[in-house]
Amino acid sequence: MEPKNQTVLEFHLLGLSGNPELQPILFGLFLSMYLVTVLGNLLIIMAIISDSHLHTPMYFFLCNLSLVDIFFSSTTVPKMLVNIQTQSTAIPFTGCLAQMYAFHLFGTMDSFLLAVMAIDRLVAIGYPLRYSVLMSPHTCGILVGGPWVITNLQSLVHTCLMAQLTFCAGSEIPHFFCDLMPLLKLSCSDTHTNELVIFAFGIIMGLSPLSCILVSYICIFRAVFRIPSAQGRWKAFSTCGSHLTVVSLFYGTIFAVYLQPASPTSSQKDKAAALMCGVVIPTLNPFIYSLRNKDMKAALKKLGSKAVSSQP
């Protein structure tokens, strides 16, 4: 879609810091984190695909989460690395819209997948005898496919509305990627509709997955406490440990940043939240889901053994 009455043809991402001395450090740090994110999540995907014992709903959802994490991190980090390396901050208007679309698509998809994984744990612990029936391949496909449709629709609406605006209030974005609110501040059009849509989608897309996770874990706690033996309770609840850790990191970051009063440092808080959710957590996820999971560690060892034995 061509921008309507567009006066600014490109924007300039100011990044995380304007200090030239910090640029090599930031480049090395984020390049390392990005490589760990991509390689770690690819290993999880390959281990799940190659091991038939992991062809279960829980690992199907984990495979999707790992794939989304790769895309989520790839939305912002490569462009940031290129900007640091070339010392160029420019990004074309269409590229800016594409980055905004992808960031909100994969970021929201992350939260929906965490909700789906909470439902999976609820069914596994609360209804173990009916698990294979309730979590059939058809059901799993709907639980993953539905959020993909919804999140693409959200991103499409935001992008189409943004493309209709006129930008003549400057071209510098005080962020390391193109985000909704920083872009709206540069527009000299009426942004009332955009702001209403952002608020509405924020409520629906934010509260729906969170409510699902909270209700699921309330039911999980009730089911666990009905188990007579302490060993049985621990065994049931231990299957939720990795998921709870990621949920706590993801939503803990959002609450810590956005449940504080507005201040002159709000843009810095936005950067911190985006870095944590879009860069740090995708880097940590492979470790969280593999180090505390015997089946995953065994699958990764098998994958490593196959790779070694296949070498001439």
Automatic annotation (TrEMBL):
Membrane-crossing residue ranges in chain numbering: 25-49, 61-81, 101-119, 131-150, 196-224, 236-260, 272-291
InterPro entries linked to this entry: GPCR_Rhodpsn (IPR000276), GPCR_Rhodpsn_7TM (IPR017452), Olfact_rcpt (IPR000725)
Gene3D superfamilies in UniProt: Rhodopsin 7-helix transmembrane proteins (1.20.1070.10)
GO CC entries: plasma membrane
Major site of localization recorded for this protein: membrane
Subcellular location: Cell membrane
PROSITE patterns, alphabetized: G_PROTEIN_RECEP_F1_2
Source superkingdom: Eukaryota
Name this protein carries in UniProt: Olfactory receptor 1I1
Alphabetical keyword list: Cell membrane, G-protein coupled receptor, Membrane, Olfaction, Receptor, Sensory transduction, Transducer, Transmembrane, Transmembrane helix
Organism of derivation: Mesocricetus auratus
Lipid bilayer topology: Multi-pass membrane protein
Chain ranges of the G-protein coupled receptors family 1 profile domain: 40-289
Family, as annotated: Belongs to the G-protein coupled receptor 1 family.
A GO molecular-function descriptor: G protein-coupled receptor activity
